[in-house]
Specification:
By secondary structure, this protein is mainly α. About 70% of the residues lie in helices and about 0% in strands.
Length: about 120
C-alpha cells in the first residue's frame, strides 16, 4: 500500500488548528452533563422520592464523565487538535507518548462513565 503524506497536497493546511472547536465541545459537554445531573437530583428532591441506587450511579457516572473532558483539556497542551506533522522528529515521539498515556486513561473513564450512565 502506497502512503502519500498530505504535505504533498497543495490544499493541505499544516497550521490548521481545531483546538477552539475542541474547547467549545468539551465545555458544552461539561455544562450539559452537570445541568442534567443536577436536574435529576433536584427533581427527585422536589418529588420527595429520595435518592436510590440509580441516582448514586448517575452521580458517579457524572464524575467519571468529567475526567475524559479534563484529560482532553490536558491533551490540548501537548498538541492535540493540531496536525502531528508540526511536532517534528525530536519532539514528536515524546508528545505522542504523552498523548497515548492520556488516551489510555481516557478510555478507562469513558467506558466506565458510559456503562454507569446506562445502568442509571
Amino acid at each position: 500500500m502506497n502512503y502519500s503524506a498530505p504535505l504533498d497536497d497543495p490544499n493541505f493546511d499544516l497550521h490548521a488548528d481545531q483546538r477552539g472547536r475542541l474547547i467549545g465541545s468539551l465545555t458544552s459537554m461539561i455544562i450539559l452533563t452537570t445541568v442534567f445531573t443536577a436536574l435529576r437530583l433536584v427533581s427527585r428532591k422536589l418529588a420527595r422520592a429520595g435518592l436510590w441506587w440509580d441516582d448514586h450511579l448517575a452521580v458517579i457516572a457524572w464524575i467519571s464523565s468529567l475526567v475524559p473532558c479534563i484529560l482532553w483539556f490536558i491533551a490540548l497542551r501537548y498538541g492535540y487538535g493540531r496536525h502531528i506533522y508540526i511536532w517534528g522528529e525530536v519532539e514528536g515521539p515524546q508528545k505522542a507518548r504523552r498523548w497515548l498515556r492520556i488516551l489510555y486513561v481516557f478510555e478507562l473513564f469513558f467506558h466506565t462513565s458510559t456503562t454507569l450512565a446506562k445502568y442509571s
